[in-house]
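Researcher: We plan to redesign the surface later, but first we want a full-length starting point. Tokens attached.
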């Protein structure tokens, strides 16, 4: 197999001394220089559980990677948005799973990836069917991995129907992250999403099926909360069917102790062969999704950085390195070497502290120089991870989008963009697609950009800036915001 070591190039390590001095000079508003989901926002034992999990912590997703192993092919329900020739649409974007694995193969693959990808922190089982229905394979896989790599977090994603039968196993297996996909709390709504379920050796249809599924999902939530297992609820937003209803779902899952709620857009292309795809049921627009997420303010905390990844994805969220680790590339004998992962974790610990400190300084400067009621703006960022602006515009397959106002900088979403630049040649139609993708975003920050795309973006009203190459995202976004709100640009750049 090729030696694909993730390099840390582009992740310029900031001078901690400079930042500390900046904090002393300018003052740090909050004690721990906390970020929106940092250690200052939650109990230490919870932070300990989520700090390296790329799905449970927005901050962690800049640094840590997950991998899925496709050991659970069968499912006990039918969702109208799923065709199992494709990945589970709950946890993946459509695309055939490259290969299904048995538990022994899966464990070998995890070791191979852990040796090569220092960012790896989580192993998830998310299909392609239901991980709790195929319990024997799921349990065997997790047991094998836990024995050999006890520092990898184990994570499970399920529709919840079979989960109550296995929750006591979860504690024994040291699993403290479970995702439940809950699309309704009203079984009438469920009848439009689930044509049938298979429960206690019997197939159930219609309202009866939805009632059973709902009861088992609520029971799963209660049992997991009682055992202190962190629950993330995934919901698929289906316009005209459960879009408004998800506000109620958000309230109820919060009451029942869910840690996060991840509202994902329905993916329903006709070529995927799903019921919704064939019926022409559309997914929500980016604006509709954001509107619903914003309307959930005050309810369960929202995850906004989900990438709807494949059931065999490998890498940071938003990248897929699965093809580098297919079974024909994994050696028959592989032994675990934790050295790279340990070194990476040590580096991340310092880097995260610096980034938080830098973000806090930038926030203080923005609050001091920009009017409180200045209009919020969106800024797109090309990044390879590490919380820095470290990617060439032409190499970006997605842009992270941040919102900034006088209160600071927040991650809001990502927008996909197919590689604009292939083999060094720009392709006009792809650039048009990027421009469409960035609708409503007036600024893009990247490590470098050529004159032609810069001009095309400018003509579309989007300013491309590469002056902040390798800077932290928050400091750069704050500086742009200050520059756009009256502060001289040179001053903002040097701030
Ligand atoms: Fe996988 Fe899911 Fe665990 Fe993450 S994914 S089982 S919680 S390790 Fe994450 Fe992927 Fe979104 Fe899932 S980005 S689809 S939320
Ligand atoms: Fe498909 Fe997942 Fe629904 Fe099962 S739970 S039908 S695998 S989307």
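Model: Full-length starting sequence:
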């Amino acid at each position: 197999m090729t030696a694909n070591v993730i390099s840390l190039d582009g992740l310029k390590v900031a001078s901690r001394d400079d930042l500390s001095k900046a904090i002393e000079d300018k003052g740090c508003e909050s004690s721990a220089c906390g970020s929106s989901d940092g250690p200052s926002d939650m109990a230490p034992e919870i932070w300990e559980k989520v700090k390296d999990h790329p799905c449970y912590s927005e901050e962690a997703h800049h640094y840590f990677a997950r991998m899925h192993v496709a050991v659970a092919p069968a499912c006990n329900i039918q969702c109208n948005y799923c065709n199992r020739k494709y990945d589970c649409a709950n946890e993946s974007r459509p695309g055939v799973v490259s290969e299904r694995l048995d538990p022994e193969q899966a464990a070998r693959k995890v070791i191979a990836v852990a040796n090569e990808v220092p960012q790896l922190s989580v192993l998830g089982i998310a299909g392609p069917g239901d991980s709790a229905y195929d319990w024997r394979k799921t349990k065997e896989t997790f047991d094998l991995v836990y024995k050999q790599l006890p520092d990898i977090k184990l994570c499970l994603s399920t529709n919840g129907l079979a989960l109550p039968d296995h929750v006591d196993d979860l504690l024994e297996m040291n699993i403290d992250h479970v995702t439940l996909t809950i699309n309704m709390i009203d079984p009438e709504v469920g009848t439009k999403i689930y044509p049938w379920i298979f429960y206690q050796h019997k197939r159930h249809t219609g309202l009866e099926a939805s009632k059973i599924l709902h009861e088992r999902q609520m029971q799963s939530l209660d049992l997991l909360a009682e055992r202190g297992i962190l629950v993330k609820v995934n919901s698929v937003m289906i316009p005209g069917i459960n879009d408004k209803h998800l506000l109620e779902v958000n309230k109820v899952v919060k009451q029942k102790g869910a840690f996060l709620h991840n509202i994902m857009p329905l993916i329903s292309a006709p070529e995927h062969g799903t019921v919704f795809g064939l019926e022409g049921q559309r997914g929500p627009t980016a604006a509709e999704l954001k509107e619903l997420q914003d309307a959930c303010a005050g309810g369960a905390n929202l995850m906004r950085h989900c990438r709807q990844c494949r059931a065999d994805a490998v890498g940071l969220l938003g990248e897929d390195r699965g093809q580098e680790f297919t079974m024909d590339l994994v050696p028959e004998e592989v032994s675990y070497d934790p050295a790279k992962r340990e070194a990476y974790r040590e580096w991340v610990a310092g880097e995260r502290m610096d980034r938080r400190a830098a973000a806090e300084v930038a926030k203080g400067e923005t609050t001091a120089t920009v009017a409180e009621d200045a209009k919020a703006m969106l800024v797109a960022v090309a990044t390879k991870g590490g919380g820095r602006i470290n990617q060439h515009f032409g190499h970006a397959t997605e842009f992270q989008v941040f919102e900034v106002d006088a209160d600071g900088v927040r991650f809001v979403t990502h927008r996909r963009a197919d590689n604009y630049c292939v083999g060094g040649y720009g392709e006009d139609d792809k650039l048009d697609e990027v421009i469409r993708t960035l609708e409503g975003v007036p600024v893009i920050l990247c490590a470098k950009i050529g004159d032609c795309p810069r001009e095309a973006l400018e003509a579309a009203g989007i300013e491309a800036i590469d002056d902040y190459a390798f800077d932290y995202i928050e400091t750069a976004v704050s500086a742009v915001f200050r520059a756009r709100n009256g502060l001289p640009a040179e001053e903002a750049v040097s701030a």
